[in-house]
Amino acid sequence: MELQNYSLVSEFVLYGLCTSQHLRHFFFIFFSGIYVATVLGNLIIVVTVISDPHLHSSPMYFLLGNLSFLDIWLASCATPKMIRDFLSDRKLISFGGCMAQIFFLHFIGVAEMVLLVSMAYDRYVAICKPLHYMTMMSWQTCMGLVFVSWVTGFVHSISQVAFTVNLPYCGPNEVDSFFCDLPLVIKLACMDTYGLGILMISDSGLLSLSCFLLLLVSYTVILITVQQRAAGGVSKALSTCSAHITVVTLFFGPCIFIYVWPFSRFSVDKLLSVFYTIFTPLLNPLIYTLRNKEMKTAMKKLCNQHVTSH
After folding, report:
1. Positions in the chain whose pLDDT score sits under 70
2. Which fold has domain 11-294?
3. pTM of the model
4. What is the CA radius of gyration of the chain?
5. What is the residue extent of each domain of the chain?
6. Beta carbons within 8 Å of 141's beta carbon, 6+ residues apart
7. How far apart are CA 103 and CA 181, in angstroms?
C-alpha cells in the first residue's frame, strides 16, 4: 500500500506514430481502412465456421474460428485508440486505461500463441496419425485446447499487470509509442525497475520463444514423418501447413524481437508493434482464406444463402 501513495500519475501521454499533420491525416484514413478490413475479415471467418456444419465439426476450422475471434480483439486493443489519436494534438490515456491495454494485449497475445501451438498439434495428428485423428482431436480435446489457451493468457497477463499497477509512478508519464507497451511503461516508475523489467520482459520473451521453438519442432516432425512415408510427401505437407507456418512466422517474429531483445531502438520496436497489433490480425484471414478451398467454398455458400433469403 505504501507504493500506491507515491503513484501521483493519473494519466499517460502517448507520443503516437508521428507528429506530421499531413501524415496523421493519411494514417487516420489508412489505419481506419485496415482496422475495418481486419474486423470484417475475421468476423466473416467466425460466422462462416459457425454457420457451416462441416467446418464447425472440423477441429482445424474450429481452432481457426477461435484464432479469428482472438484476432478481432487483438486488433481492437490499441488500434481504435491510435486512430482516434491521429486527430488529437495531445494523446492521453488514463492510468486505468493504460493498465487495461497492457492486460488485454498480453492476455490475447499469449492465448493466441498457445492456440497456434494447438493448431500445429492438430496438423501433426492429421498428417502423422490420420487413423486416430477423430479420436485424438475429439470435441472435448478441442474445447480443452481452447480453454488452456485462454487460461494461460489470463494467468500470464494478470501476473504482469499485478506487478506493473503497484509500481510508484510519481513524475514522468510520457510513453514513446502509440499504446501502453509494458517495457516502456515500467521504465517510468520512480524506482529502479531494471531487475523487475528484465524479469517481466524475459517472461514474455521466453514464452514467445518457447512456443515458437515448439512450433518449429512440430512442423519439422510433420515433414520428416511424411517424407519417410511417401515420395513427394514433403511438398504435400508444405502445401497443407504453409498457411500455418506463414502465420506463425508473422506472429512470433515481432514478439520475439521486442521481448527477447527489449532494449533495441524504440523506432524499430514501434514499427514491429504496428505490424504485430495491426497487420498480423489482418493477414491471418487473408492467408487462411486465399489458400483454403473449403473455406472459400463455405463463404460462397453462405453468401448465396444470404442473397437467396433476400
Report:
1. 1-7, 229-240, 256, 258-269, 290-291, 306-310
2. Rhopdopsin 7-helix transmembrane proteins (1.20.1070)
3. 0.86
4. 21
5. 11-294
6. 59
7. 10
